[in-house]
Amino acid sequence: MPSTPSPVEPVDTPGSPVRTLLRLWPYVRPVRARWITAAVVAVIASCMSLVFPVVLKWMIDGPITDQDQAGVWLGALLLLVLGIAEALLFGFRRWLVARPLAGVEAAMRADLYRHLQRVPVAFHDRWPSGQLLSRGTTDLSVIRMFFAFPLTFLLVNGVTILAGFGLLLAQDWTLGLVLVLPAVPMVLICYRFEGKYSAAARTSQDQVGDLTTVVEESVLGVRVIKGFGRHRSQARAFRELSGRLRGTELTKARLLATLLGTLTVFPEIALGAALVVGTVQVADGQLSAGTLVAFLSTALALRWPIESMGYLLAMSQEAATATRRYFEAMDEPEEDSGGTAAVPDPGSGDGMRFTGVEFRYPDAPPGSTAVLERIDLHVRQGETMAVVGATGSGKTTLTALVPRLHELTGGRITLDGQDITAMDRAELRALVSVAFEEPTLFSASVAENVRMGAGPDTAAGPGADPALTRALGVAQAGFVAELPDGPATEVGEQGLSLSGGQRQRLALARAVIGGPRFLVLDDPLSALDVHTEAAVEAALREVLGRTTALVVAHRPSTVLLADRVALLSGGRVTAVGTHQELLRESAEYRHLMSGGDGLAGPKGDGTR
Ligand SMILES: Nc1ncnc2c1ncn2[C@@H]1O[C@H](COP(=O)(O)OP(=O)(O)OP(=O)(O)O)[C@@H](O)[C@H]1O
After folding, report:
1. Are 141 and 272 found together in one domain?
2. Mutation probe of ligand 1 site: the residue of 357, 393, 407 with most atoms within 8 A of C-beta
3. Which keywords does UniProt give here (predicted)?
């Protein structure tokens, strides 16, 4: 078991963080009115803090100097009203955005899920599941937080800082300049920080994806890990990855600390300098004490808006990275819906035909030989064709081509004369039923798992129960009646509460429940004991009599279900005939049927 997943290479998406974040506009569009209202409310609330120093100046230079007690009370009341209004406005802002932003996150998550169902299987072969999980969870939360805080407060703080500096310069331009000057180095430092923090945020978010993959693999593979006593090495692999993530988080913390330090130290020095200059001016009588107090209060009111810029920039960078990661998955092209040709008429009676079929996996190294080459095979209508070949000869790949789980790289496959690429994908998949070697079940009831094969229209229909009983009968799944709630029993995550043979029988029942015209079975009985296998075969024989079937077989007993057998060797069909004919004519077939498969190398070249 690999200890670490192969991470998806970060796609180097060109473009500034702003351009990246602008891609979120379609999701924000429906809530723009509320968001803008909330932002305006926050700007008003924040600018109110700048009114405090003006009231203070009025109080000091007016009622306090004149010892006017009523004026002092009036000023105090004014300050109290301003404070309450500010708090209420910030609360109102939160109320305005909380619900719509949760809606934005939910919409993005739904789109990602829908998209992942529609991308080709090859995409899922390439992407570790943890990377997809982290994009649909952590990254989307980061994006929601960005809309709720950084985006709003970058605007709010920006306006507050500009208004504040305007006020400072208006109160006393020399003192104002002392405070404004440090802005130049601070902007340069922020700019440098952005680039470095962006790279660290990307690394960290990718590492979270890798860690998720390891956790997922460890949980799903817990039996193997325990069985082989690999919990220590698995824990070591986890610790290593988690240590790397910790290192990246520390790098981020160091970068942020440098920025926050800069954003704190420069204004503090400037404020100290302004205080000295201001006091000298008051002593010289060039400045009133009220103006100096108002000036310093305004400067202090700007402290938090300036200091918080560090956090806001960091959160914005993380949101840009999260957005980039989200769209890397979303930008993967979906499968097209297929052609528009009508589903072939069963009367045409041509069965399943492979003509010059070639296939190479999209991620195969350049120059490597194709998995399947020049496959010509005709499964007549109503016929069952077994596909036999050494391990790795391409049998599973061949079966996956019929429902278009992978796209042919050459040649064509027709069903009753109709090219599979000309048909609508959904209709093609309704026409062809499949059972894979690895029987995958979902965390649902037995009945729901089996009815999945009956298609969306008939799955929950009134006639579904007799069909379910029939399908379970064909698969010899009598054990279902003995489960605590019969067919309504939940099978747990991936059906792991059932045995391998039980899962395989349910997968077979799922494949036959819809009475498909074309059936593709990838070694469907491999996990059954000989008695159950014989019983399933007897029942399956009847189903196979009514359908055109391609059945991957490793054992002679499964081969005997078929009318004819195709021998796949080195990615090609090297012989077709009845079981007896192939036993007579093909040494490789005799070898495979005698159980010596292991001697054949990859692509079956060991016996040719
Ligand atoms: N997703 C994939 N990406 C790249 N190569 C693959 C992929 N799946 C299978 N292969 C390669 O394609 C070849 C054929 O694999 P396939 O699973 O079709 O063989 P098989 O005959 O069904 O083997 P088995 O009898 O062991 O199930 C193998 O060499 C395998 O390594």
Report:
1. yes
2. 393
3. ATP-binding, Cell membrane, Membrane, Nucleotide-binding, Transmembrane, Transmembrane helix, Transport
State which residues form the domain around 367.
346-607
Identity of the amino acid at 450: V
Give CA–CA dist 200/529, Å, rounded: 54
CA atoms within 13 A on the CB side of 394: 27
Residue 12 lies in a domain: no
Give the phi and the psi of residue 372 in degrees, each rounded to 5. Answer: -125, 135
CATH code for the domain in which residue 257 is found: 1.20.1560.10
Question: Is any atom of ligand 1 closer than 6 Å to the C-beta of 362?
Answer: no
Encoding tokens for residue 83?
């404070």
438 lines ligand 1 (CB under 6 A): no
Q: Tell me how crowded residue 323 is: count the other CB atoms within 10 A of its CB.
A: 23
Quick one: pLDDT at residue 388? 92
Identify the residue whose C-alpha is closest to ligand 1 atom 30: 392
Cβ(270)–Cβ(178) below 8 Å: yes
Cβ of 397 closer than 6 Å to ligand 1, yes or no, is yes
Q: For ligand 1, atom 5, which residue shows the shortest CA distance?
A: 361
pLDDT at residue 5 in the model: 42
Closest CA to 115 of 271, 273, 332, 369: 332
Between CA 167 and CA 396 the distance in angstroms is: 74
Does residue 392's CB lie within 6 angstroms of at least one atom of ligand 1? yes
Report, as an integer, the average pLDDT of 391-419.
Answer: 90
Phi, psi angles (nearest 5°) of residue 70: -60, -40
Q: Are residues 405 and 542 in the same domain?
A: yes
> Is ipTM strictly over 0.90?
yes
Query: Which atom of ligand 1 lies nearest, measured to the CA of 437?
Result: 27
Q: Which atom of ligand 1 is nearest to the CA of 568?
A: 21
pLDDT of residue 604: 39
Average pLDDT of span 39-47: 83
- Ramachandran region, residue 344 (left: φ > 0; alpha: ψ -120 to 50; beta: rest): beta
Ligand 1 centroid, distance to 551 Cα (angstroms): 16
Model confidence over 527-551: pLDDT tens digits? 777 777 777 777 778 778 788 999 9
Compute the distance from residue 602 Cα to the ligand 1 centre, in Å: 9
Q: Rounded to the nearest 10 degrees, what angle do helices 289-301 and 150-171 cross at?
A: 160
pLDDT tens digits for range 158-202: 888 888 888 888 878 888 888 888 878 888 887 888 778 888 888
Query: For residue 422, what are its two tokens?
Result: 């000309």
The reply to whether 5 falls in a domain is no
Is the CB of residue 368 below 6 angstroms from any atom belonging to ligand 1? no
Distance between Cα 522 and ligand 1 center (Å): 12
Q: Which two tokens stand for residue 320?
A: 């840009």
- pTM (2 d.p.): 0.74
